[in-house]
Amino acid sequence: xxxxxxxxxxxxxxxxxxxxxxxxxxxxxxxxxxxxxxxxxxxxxxxxxxxxxxxxxxxxxxxxxx
Amino acid sequence: xxxxxxxxxxxxxxxxxxxxxxxxxxxxxxxxxxxxxxxxxxxxxxxxxxxxxxxxxxxxxxxxxxxxxxxxxxxxxxxxxxxxxxxxxxxxxxxxxxxxxxxxxxxxxxxxxxxxxxxxxxxxxxxxxxxxxxxxxxxxxxxxxxxxxxxxxxxxxxxxxxxxxxxxxxxxxxxxxxxxxxxxxxxxxxxxxxxxxxxxxxxxxxxxxxxxxxxxxxxxxxxxxxxxxxxxxxxxxxxxxxxxxxxxxxxxxxxxxxxxxxxxxxxxxxxxxxxxxxxxxxxxxxxxxxxxxxxxxxxxxxxxxxxxxxxxxxxxxxxxxxxxxxxxxxxxxxxxxxxxxxxxxxxxxxxxxxxxxx
Lengths: 66, 358
Prior knowledge:
heterodimer; A: 66 residues; mainly alpha; 3 helices; 47% helix; B: 358 residues; alpha+beta; three-stranded antiparallel sheet; 18 helices; globular
């Protein structure tokens, strides 16, 4: 009798859950994650604006072939 | 390449690839959840090759630990042979770190971006290239000698037939050997995984009846003696720091020469008596900025070294006739060709008696 009650309660709850249209919210999956890294590094204009000027550390005293 | 361009992912191909799906921070660190640049880049690892690649590619990463690209043991073995002290903190060790270490390359600098020495920068929007780009990777470092020869950039000297006729890129010949053989090698010629001409041109051993020159010389002459053209020779490289403390170097103008000498590394694998020799950029005073006589036994290693010029041709001036070589002192490395200060070092490769005319 106890088992029957438990099963009925379970079925009622499941039906209510489906009727309410609930579902597990989709989380980020590998490859679909939109990170700030991707947003910036795929945006040419943004990269141009934010790129730091890096000074070349090559010596002007170097001559000849490498 | 502009600074922004070096880190620009132009198309989404990479993001859809296996490596792209891993997510940026797994390899590079940083914080992908914030938009402010400085915070997002805290702890960033620009080149995560050392720790990142062997997670999945442990077999290649392990093998690669013996690669000359990783160990630079080619440089070390020559310096040590000349009596150089490379112990930590020594003057030569400091020079090595300032200059030679730049030639070290990582997985990423062959398979993802241009080498650091060339300023870095993504080659194909971060797509991992199993086969490195000949232009952006191999020739970026090996350009002055091998690249110029192969592409025919030395004035008056045509490019290698493997390129001009077959469009073969570097990796067509140099494959797995670039990851090393698993054993430490003193130089590229002692890498047991290295390829040889005969690996593809097997018929040179069997066509001797139709080819009297092969009949006469195979095994005794390195292939390049008959099949390569004049090549670049550098000399008198000196390294140091400039007034601002930045590493710099100077060298004499290079020379396009063709010189046959005695084989300095004769072995079962390389049994040739005669080989083509190229002058290495080094000299006794190369490291004098860092201290006197840092190569105290510099006569122990020849400065004219075994070479494999990359401008191969079927027909060359040397194989026009027997007397193109026999009796032709111009193409042999004789004592007069060698700087008096380097004669002792090169005693074992200088040709004393040029083969007589036929």
